Amino acid sequence: MKNRYEAAKHVFVDSIDIEDYIELNSSVTAYKQLEHSMSKPLKMILLFGRPGTGKSILLNRIQTKLKHQKEIYYFDTPAPTEKEFLRKLFKVLTKKDLPINTEVNFSILIDHCKSLRDKREIIILLDEAQMYDSNMMEKIRLLSDTRSVKFVISLHKTEDEDLIAKEHFQSRIWEVIELKNASKEDQATYVHKKLLKKNLFEIADSIKTREMKLIYKFTNGNYRECNKLMFTIFEICEYYDKNEPNKINYSQIPKKIIEMASLKLGYIHV
Ligand SMILES: Nc1ncnc2c1ncn2[C@@H]1O[C@H](COP(=O)(O)OP(=O)(O)OP(=O)(O)O)[C@@H](O)[C@H]1O
Ligand SMILES: [Mg+2]
Question: Where are the domains of the chain?
Answer without folding.
Answer: 4-15+183-264, 25-179
